[in-house]
Structures are given as C-alpha cells and as structure tokens.
Design brief:
Helix 1 crosses helix 8, helix 4 packs antiparallel against helix 5 and helix 4 packs across helix 7. The protein has a five-stranded parallel sheet with strand order 2-3-1-4-5, sandwiched between helices. It has a single domain, classed as Rossmann fold. By secondary structure, it is of the alpha/beta class. The longest helix is centred in the middle third of the chain and has 25 residues.
C-alpha cells in the first residue's frame, strides 16, 4: 500500500462478477468525492493491452507454454504497476484493479501446475513488491460461472472445466493462507448483496486510514 492511496484488487473465476462489482464501487466512491482509478490485468497500459491480445486470442495458431504465459502476464503487470498503479497511489487515489498477483498464483501456479510457492517470489518481484490494501475474492462454482459467461470467446475461458476447478481450489487455498488480506465473498449472492458487503469492507479500511465515510 502507498503512503497516500489505497489499492484494492478483485479476483475470481470466470463469470464471478468482478467487473460489475468494480463498476458499482467506483461509482459509489466517486459520489463520496474519492478519486478512483479503475484498471485491469492483463492490460491497463498500451504494452499491457498488446500482451492481453496475445494471451487471450483464442484464434491464435501459436502455442503458449505455461512459463511463457506467466512471463507475459508478469511483463504486463510490471508495466502496469510502474505506469499506472504507483503514480495513482502516490496521488492519493483509490485504485480498483480487476486481477493482480493472486490471479497469476491461481491460474499459472495452480491450474498450470507451475507451483504456487515456487512462482510467488517471481510474481512479487515483477509486481514491484506491491501488496494490495485488500483482495476481494468472489468465489463461484466454475460450472455456474462459465454458464453466466455464455459464449466462451477467449483462450483461457475456453479451457476445460477441470482447469477452472483447479483455479478455484488455488484461490481458496490462497485465501486460507492469507486470511488477513484476502476476503472471500459468495458470488452466488445477488449483485446488491455482494456490493454492500464489499463496500462495508472498504469503508472500514478507509476509516482505519483516517478517511471515514
């Protein structure tokens, strides 16, 4: 966490509702006169968006091995932190980021079998050792999440159900290992319920930093 701003990341499997939650929280915080930056991974910068196209292009004829996949995600993140996140935090803004380090640990460390503990130091280094103020993990049964998504258009969405189940298991493992900073939300609840739970949590964190709502 920056000395000035607050950094919140949002994690979950496909169809968990991260985008909807981020949009709702950003609008609410803006009405309370907080300066908010919404961003996503992979992406967030020109370089990151180019990398995103490579990583998610389902029609691509080239193969991407797990280590190369991780390296691309981390390259995007490193640029993202340097160019967008750190400057925003130094300006005292609240940053809401769709995916961050926990996604790499769950997707590549867990589902791609690279090993969560093995890649954790690399992920931390490439993220400039930046740790979110809090991680909001939206937990959902992969079958339900993929049904919500409907047509699966990108390379990672189109992986097998077993792959997505491994992602969920990895996220839950991480949440159990780091209960102090990873909060688990039941993504099976209504959007309204999840929003209120997440906003209450953010309000508590803001109050703890002398910014009561």
């Amino acid at each position: 966490m920056s000395k000035k701003g607050l950094f919140f990341t949002f994690e979950g499997g496909e169809g968990a509702g991260k985008t909807t939650l981020i949009e709702g929280l950003a609008k609410k915080l803006a009405t309370l006169d907080f300066s908010v930056v919404k961003t996503r991974e992979p992406g967030g910068t020109k370089l990151g968006e180019h990398i995103r196209n490579i990583l998610l292009d389902h029609s691509a004829t080239m193969s991407i091995c797990p280590r190369a996949e991780l390296s691309l995600f981390l390259a995007s993140r490193s640029q993202h932190v340097e160019e967008v996140i750190i400057p925003a935090l130094e300006d005292g803004k609240i940053v809401l980021c769709d995916r961050f380090t926990e996604s790499s640990l769950a997707y590549q460390g867990g589902a791609r079998d690279l090993g969560i503990e093995k890649i954790a130091p690399i992920c931390s280094y490439m993220a400039h050792d930046l740790i979110p103020s809090s991680v909001f993990y939206l937990d959902i049964d992969p079958k339900i999440g993929l049904q919500r998504r409907g047509k699966l258009s990108d390379r990672i969405e189109s992986e097998t159900l077993a792959f997505h189940q491994k992602i969920r298991q990895a996220f839950l493992y991480l949440a159990k290992q780091h209960p102090d900073r990873i909060q688990v939300f039941d993504a099976g609840k209504s959007c309204k319920e999840i929003f209120h739970e997440a906003f209450d949590s953010i309000a508590d964190i803001l109050a703890a930093h002398g910014l009561p709502i």
